[in-house]
Amino acid sequence: MKIMVAIKRVVDYAVKIRIKSDKTGVETSNVKMSMNPFCEIALEEALKIKESKLASEVIAVSIGPAQCVDTLRTGLAMGADRAIHVDAPSTLFPLSIAKILKALVDVEKPGLLILGKQAIDDDCNQTGQMVAGLLNWPQGTFASKVVFDKEKNVATVDREVDGGLETLCLDLPAVITTDLRLNQPRYATLPNIMKAKSKPIKKITPEELKVEIRSDMEVLHVKEPQKRKAGVILSSVDELIDKLKNEAHVI
C-alpha cells in the first residue's frame, strides 16, 4: 500500500502575523515559512504506518509556488520516499486543492490519503472532506488514533468530536485528517537531511493533471482582529458576578 500525504507551506507558527498595507492579505515577504504543524502530524503518522510494515511507500505532495520544494525537502528529510510538487499559484482555495489531490490519487493509486485537519494560515478545515467526496472514499476526520487491520483491509479511527471521541471503521482506500493529539512529529536528523537532497521531487502542473484552477470566491478585505482589553483584578466574587452579568456581552 502506498500512502500519499498532502503538506502545505505556511508562515511559521512562531511568527507574528502582519497584514499587508493594501489589506489584500498577510505579509509573507522576508517571513519565515515552514510546514503546517497539522501536516507534520499527518506525515509522521504515514511514516509510522510504513515502519509498522503496513505500507510500502510514503509520497509527500505540496501544491503552490516554487518555494514549496523547500517544504517537500523537509518532508523527505523526515522520511518520505519521494515527493510531488504541483506548481500552482500561491493562493488556492480548498476546492481547487481537493481537485488537484483527486487527480494525483487517480495517477498514483494510493491506499490511503492523509492530510492535516486544517492549515494554520486560513483554518478552512475543508480540503480533506472535499477530496473524500470527490473520490467517493470513506473519511475519518480529526483523527486522534489510527489502527490498521491488514487482513480485513480496514482502518479504525478515533476522532475528536465536541462530545468526546467517536470511533469509525473505514474500508480502504480512505481519507484521514489528523488532529493534534495523534502523535509527536519527529525531527529530521542531519544524515536524513543529506539523503533528502538526492530523493526525487517530481514537478507537475494542474494543466498536466487536467484540472482547471478557478474559484467562485474573492477576498475583498483583510484586517487584524480587535485588540483585547487589558484584564482587571477583582476584589470579590460578587464583583466578578456583577461584571459577568452586566459586561460579559460587551466586546
TrEMBL record:
Keyword Mitochondrion recorded: yes
Protein's GO biological process: amino acid catabolic process; fatty acid beta-oxidation using acyl-CoA dehydrogenase
Record-level Gene Ontology MF annotations: electron transfer activity
One Gene Ontology CC term in the entry: mitochondrial matrix
Keyword Coiled coil: no
Electron transfer flavoprotein alpha/beta-subunit N-terminal domain mapped to chain residues: 23-213
PROSITE patterns listed in its UniProt record: ETF_BETA (PS01065)
Pfam families per UniProt: ETF
Compartment(s) of residence: Mitochondrion matrix
Family: Belongs to the ETF beta-subunit/FixA family.
Name of the protein this chain belongs to: Electron transfer flavoprotein subunit beta
